[in-house]
Design brief:
Layout: E1 2-6, E2 9-13, E3 35-36, E4 48-49, E5 54-56, E6 73-74, H1 81-87, E7 95-100, E8 107-112, E9 132-138, H2 146-154, E10 160-166, H3 175-187, E11 195-200, H4 202-214, E12 220-225, H5 230-233, E13 238-243, E14 246-253, E15 258-262, H6 271-288, H7 290-298, H8 300-305, H9 308-328, H10 343-353, H11 359-376, H12 383-394, H13 408-418, E16 431-436, E17 439-443, H14 448-456
Parallel strand pairs: 8-15, 9-10, 9-11, 11-12, 12-15
Antiparallel strand pairs: 1-2, 2-10, 3-7, 4-6, 5-7, 7-8, 13-14, 16-17
Helix pairs in contact: 3-4, 6-7, 6-9, 6-11, 10-11, 10-13, 11-12, 11-14
Bound molecules: nicotinamide-adenine-dinucleotide and zinc ion.
């Protein structure tokens, strides 16, 4: 094995060790259902039913960790990861596993502890052992050793592994960095059968995903998220880079082949980033899963401190909401727009406040403002505003716009920005509005007067 690092790039090559199965996931298309897989044999009636983040645990029991109403078919899978790892002589892993439907091929989201060091076990269906792999990682993660751990694990399966660092921060979602990464892909010998693995938060996921979507007209892509917010970003296949004129203006739908979420990496995440990620989970609770909202309320402090087991459960439940919605509407032709709760106002705040707020903080303010709009329209009870505000405060997120954004000139600017929203038709003011916990409604055109009043509240 050779191993050297220079200029943020780590190169390693190992002798090829084992062979794996079919490189391609099934292209089964969408049937409007996201499935959770528990890896167990089917129950007596041949089907395991019910909604639940299925947990593979050392005792071999799949627990229903979700009390949300509804019913789904849970696909019975081949041997469990536990069984496979036992066969390989490795310790069992305790994972939540869910499945997302995508036209290009369904994919698994695997959530658990210590997955980085065992990553090779999950790549079996991703690519054959002779595929070249390029890990693109957030340079800030090198000190924690995550890229090295992942690379070592993947070298158990793949013979050609390269890793390249991406500078930390939003500015890396650029054409300049994309061009540099294309050059790295070529230098690493990537071809159409190769795999790009994104290790980092939403920035790396979006940038590496964009490169994977476009290099040689699209190659395989795996997301290994390391921020809480990236649970939202890593599912659904949207990848993008920014232009000087605005965020995410150049992009594609390019679903990953696998999302591998090691919650242990979240231990090093600054608490402000944890709060930011919780905003998206609270959003998922409001739009679709009141039980998730209550789960966050019940464990707010432990989640802020990064408790791995509760974080894994939170992620499983929140990812399930996203998985359900993008499985129903992969290309955002309708339903998927509800994921924009809080974002119409939130994006305008981010644009005007020039980096003063995290994405989650801006979305938090947006969700409260949009709930106020719903109350003014008679769609929601006034108590819904305080219910949401209280939970946001507990996870240290703001509810109210700063005074600097509440004067008449700032409100005009915020509204002008909202009219540029991608969902605006003829510069209308479109909003996703909460009606109650678990239920939202899309309103394509809300009156400017009501929006102004809610912003000033
Ligand atoms: N594609 C989508 O559907 C989608 C959805 C939501 C957001 N996004 C995008 O995601 C981006 C924001 O993502 P983000 O909040 O993850 O930001 P990020 O990737 O910039 O990460 C936030 C910060 O955390 C650091 N970090 C990451 N993992 C860490 C770890 N384990 N320990 C310590 N520090 C760590 C990073 O270096 C960075 O400083 C935005 O560009 C946004 O547009 C995309
Ligand atoms: Zn968001």
């Amino acid at each position: 094995m050779t191993d050297h690092a220079e200029n943020g790039r780590i190169e390693r090559s190992t002798p090829q060790s084992n062979d794996v199965n079919s490189p391609d996931g099934d292209a089964t298309g969408m049937n409007g259902r996201a499935e959770r897989s528990d890896g167990r044999a089917p129950s007596a009636n041949g089907r395991a039913e019910g909604v639940g983040a299925q947990v593979e645990n050392p005792a071999g029991q799949a627990e229903n960790a979700n009390d949300r109403p509804g019913s789904q078919t849970v696909r019975a899978m081949e041997p469990t990861d536990r069984a496979k790892s036992a066969a390989a002589g490795s310790p069992p892993l305790h994972v939540h596993r869910l499945r997302v439907k995508a036209a290009a091929g369904d994919y698994d989201v695997v959530i658990g502890s210590h997955l980085l060091a065992a990553a090779d076990r999950f790549f079996e269906g991703v690519a054959s052992a002779d595929a070249a792999v390029l890990i693109i990682f957030d340079e800030a993660l090198a000190t924690a050793g995550y890229p090295q751990t992942l690379q070592t694990a993947l070298s158990q399966r793949f013979s050609s592994i390269h890793a390249v660092a991406l500078p930390t921060g939003e500015t890396s979602k650029s054409l300049l960095q994309a061009e540099r990464l294309y050059a790295e892909c070529l230098a690493a010998g990537l071809d159409r059968k190769s795999v790009i693995v994104a290790l980092g938060g939403g920035v790396v996921g979006d940038a590496a995903g964009f490169v994977a979507a476009t290099f040689m007209r699209g190659i395989r892509f795996v997301q290994v998220p390391t921020t809480l917010l990236a649970h939202d970003a890593s599912i659904g296949g949207k990848v993008a880079i920014n232009l000087p004129q605005g965020k995410n203006l150049v992009g594609a739908f390019h679903p990953p082949r696998l999302v591998l979420y090691d919650v242990e990496t979240l231990r090093t995440l600054p608490s402000a980033e944890r709060s930011s990620g919780l905003a998206e989970a609270i959003k998922h609770g409001i739009i679709r899963d009141p039980g998730l909202f209550e789960f966050i309320a019940a464990h707010a402090e432990a989640l802020l401190e990064g408790d791995p087991s509760l974080t894994a459960e939170l992620l499983a439940r929140s990812c399930q909401v996203k998985a359900d919605i993008v499985s129903l509407d992969e290309r955002e032709s309708g339903l998927r727009a509800i994921l924009n709760l809080g974002h119409t106002v939130g994006h305008a705040v981010e644009a005007l406040a020039y980096g003063a707020y995290s994405h989650g903080a801006a979305v938090a303010m947006g969700m409260v403002c949009e709930t106020r709009i719903a109350v003014r329209l008679g769609l929601a009870q006034p108590e819904l505003v305080s219910t949401i505000q209280q939970l946001l405060a507990r996870v240290r997120l703001p509810s109210d716009l700063p005074n600097s954004l509440k004067n008449a000139a700032a409100i005009d600017e915020l509204i002008a920005h909202m009219r540029l929203d991608k969902k605006a038709i003829a510069r209308s003011l479109p909003f996703v509005l909460p009606e109650s916990l678990g239920s939202v409604r899309f309103m394509p055109a809300v009156s400017e007067q009501i929006v102004m009043e809610a912003l000033a509240d």
